[in-house]
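User: I'm preparing a small set of examples for a lab meeting where we compare how different chains pack in three dimensions. I only have the primary sequence for this one, and I'd like the structure in token form so I can line it up with the others. Please keep the answer compact; I'll paste it straight into my notes.
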Amino acid sequence: MSDALLARVRGLLDDAIGVYEGTEVGEHLRSQRARLDEPLRVAIAGRVKAGKSTLLNALVGEPLAPTDEGECTRIVTWYHDGLTYRVTIHPRAGEARPARFDRLDDAVAVDLGGLTPEEVQRLEVEWPSSSLREMTLIDTPGIGALSGAPSASTLEFLTPGEGRETDAEAVLYLMKHLHTTDVDFLSAFHDEEVSQATPVNAVAVLSRADEVGGGRLDSLESAATVAARYARDAKVRRLVQTVVPVAGLLAQTGVTLREAEYQALATLGRADAAEVDTLLLSADRFANADAHVGLTTMERQALLDRFGLFGVRLVVHLIREGTVTNADALAKELESRSGLPELRQVLLTQFAERRDLLKARSGIIAVESIACTHPRAGSEALLADVEQISAGAHELVELQLLASLRAGAVDGKPDDLEAMERLVGGDGASVHARLGLPPDADVDAIRAAASAELTRWQRRAESPMASREMADAARTLVRTCEAILAQQT
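Assistant: Understood. Below is the structure token output for the 489-residue chain.
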């Protein structure tokens, strides 16, 4: 279905380019047309020190984004796959230009060439990476900074304003706990109208999950419980698809682990357990206390910087009990426990599966915004086409229904609402996810499940006892089931 919608949006953009040929907005429409063929743009946002850059590095699989408080962390930075290694500065005034950069052990250090962060609109880092082929990752300055500047830069980039659409098609929002600022930001990014963001393209990440339980070995289990509670919260459900707990530092270290680090940790694992456990009572004690554990204070500080106190505690425990015996095994264990595989699965099922739909919607937003703010001959016809595509594309209708369900606008029994949300794509856009079937379910099982759902929602749509909202939602689900059955013939 998305292929047909994407084709209609291509045609819409072609018509809009013809209407605005030779104008500045015409060039913008051309870039939107090209954007349909680019990887999905996923922005990473959150409060200051939420761990955005650390998570980005973990997703890419190598340290590219600086995690300190340098000037480049105050600039919106795009990371995308390329044939070569290159950094481009896009200043607020003047033409884009190449930037000098150094590849350090922990980040790509960029020379701004005399510009201040406030004078730079964005940095573009081109880096050959298989992880960036499907998604362009965009690191944004932390919101809620005391100076206010990073917040303004991030809000300018992510929140839709009058006459423009956001450059991000999806958002990962990081939070250490649910704060009023987090809800306010997500509310600004979110709009229940299909022309703007909906819960389908926003995922919350409970970052620094290892800190939730005070750094205890069961901290990740505690974080999973907290994330599940947030995911059920009515305020959160209307703003994001789900909430995923991730220990970002653990994830980054797992995918970039060095042999020397494993050997240093193995030394701790072999040292006197009582003395090591005393060191691990606090970060200050571990880094600075005198102890005969086979490592200097400088070496311990380096481990603390890379793993965090929880990470060191966890690795020492894993080495002592024999769960890991070499660097490769440790790297896999850290990545597995960090929550990164679960987040990647969410990105695959919630974002990648809807790539064409999200891109088509961005194109619709662009045409609608320009036609409204720059009226000229042909604009009315463009707006009519926008309305026709938005109303006629079933995928967009499903997004509207999902937003309504998440907002609590449809009354019904909890089991019914859960089934409706799943069928409309709330757990993933694949047929198996919609029907609640295992991935290996065969065609006969799919047909049986879809037929049962079709009968169920036809009855609801025709029931005189159903509210108007329920009847309208049921009719949408009937069409969904019919489309699924048509695909199986």
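A couple of notes for your slides: Confidence is low (pLDDT under 50) at residues 191-197. The two ends are 15 Å apart (CA to CA).

User: Perfect, thanks.
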